[in-house]
Write a structure and sequence with these properties.
mainly alpha, about 350 residues, ABC_BtuC-like, membrane, ABC_transptr_permease_BtuC, about 75% helix, globular
Length: about 350
């Protein structure tokens, strides 16, 4: 009976009216941007052409363009954006701070360092070629992200984790890891250095089906685990002591949440590079749209997919040249970060 009541509370939270509406709306917009992403490009394809081809009625040339060139990029954008949005919602919620995102906590930099090491040292890149490890980027990105998150969490621990201390240590870790990454690039051969430098901007241009599968597997496995933490995430907003009193195993809960976020970021970074600010912006927009006390998980994931896929469709269909989507997300996310910091400062001053 207790399990039934717990399940009832879980789904009651997940499918509350406005949250459902926002989640469905984000899904529709994400699919619309995905369709536009398949249409956008140098080869002229119309929306009816794309739909016909997806249903199996296209010409040989259309099938090549849709299934081999554009669909992997669009699917990759959806999966990468969803992974980053969900990871950001998890970290912001467990730390009870909108600034506690994988980008700021050093997780993204750790994954990037691991992946750059795979490119520079063993050639384990999807775009550079299959080197020592055919899955070099996902494996090395996961190791880098896990080691970084463990170190940041351990250094932040003082009888508990304070979000302010966690963020400060994460900023320091990000700077340190960025320096090591730059050193690896500076010492690399010109081919590997160019590939790593281009990849570090954050782009969907090099995505193929082989780089999509690890992200899909990570999302399929980790999303249900994250969703099952919904009730504990809600209770954890009351503080560690109250959460413990209400029966939440706080440390075990945090380890599960952090592990999910870290592996999601590692999978996303291995496929598309460190696309900045998606994990920061998507959960906050989803929270404001849904009018909830914390970022809704599924809506945050879908909004991340909207941002990445929509940004990539924009750069290919409207802007001249091949601009990496990471540049677009940084242009949008950095001002939002400044605004949020300014707003928090004004609140503290008025209080």
């Amino acid at each position: 009976m207790s399990a039934v009541r717990e399940g009832s509370r879980l789904f009651g939270r997940l499918w509350r009216g406005r949250v459902v509406g926002v989640t469905i709306a984000c899904l529709v917009v994400a699919l619309a941007f995905a369709l536009l992403g398949i249409v956008a490009g140098s080869s002229s394809l119309t929306i009816p052409d794309v739909i016909t081809t997806l249903l199996g009625g296209g010409t040989g040339g259309q099938e090549l363009i849709v299934f081999e060139l554009r669909l992997p990029r669009v699917v990759g954008g959806l999966l990468v954006g969803a992974s980053l949005g969900l990871a950001g919602a998890l970290t912001q919620t467990f730390a009870r701070n909108p600034l506690a995102t994988p980008d700021i906590l050093g997780v993204t930099s750790g994954a990037a360092l691991g992946a750059v090491a795979a490119i520079v040292l063993v050639g384990g890149s999807y775009s550079v070629g299959a080197g020592a490890l055919s899955l070099g980027l996902p494996a090395m990105a996961a190791i880098g992200a896990l080691v970084t998150s463990a170190a940041v969490y351990a250094l932040s621990w003082r009888g508990g984790v304070d979000s302010f201390r966690l963020i400060l240590i994460g900023i320091g870790a990000t700077a340190t890891l960025g320096g090591i990454t730059s050193y690896l690039i500076a010492r690399a051969q010109i081919t590997e250095a160019a590939a790593a430098a281009q990849w570090l901007v954050g782009s969907l241009s090099g995505i193929s089906w082989s780089s999509v599968w690890p992200v899909l597997v990570a999302l399929v496995i980790l999303t249900p685990i994250a969703v099952l933490q919904t009730s504990s995430l809600d209770i954890s907003q009351l503080g560690d002591e109250l959460s413990t009193g209400l029966g939440v195993a706080v440390q075990r809960h945090r380890i599960v949440v952090i592990a999910c976020a870290v592996l999601l970021v590692a999978a996303a970074v291995s496929a598309a590079g460190p696309i900045e600010f998606v994990a920061f912006v998507a959960p906050q927009i989803a929270r404001r749209l849904a009018r909830t006390g914390r970022p809704p998980l599924l809506a945050s994931a879908l909004l991340g997919a909207v941002i990445v896929t929509g940004g990539d469709a924009l750069v290919r269909g409207v802007l001249p040249g091949e601009i990496p989507v990471g540049i677009i997300t940084a242009i949008v996310g950095a001002p939002y970060l400044i605004w949020l910091l300014t707003r928090r400062k004004e609140r503290e001053t008025s209080a």
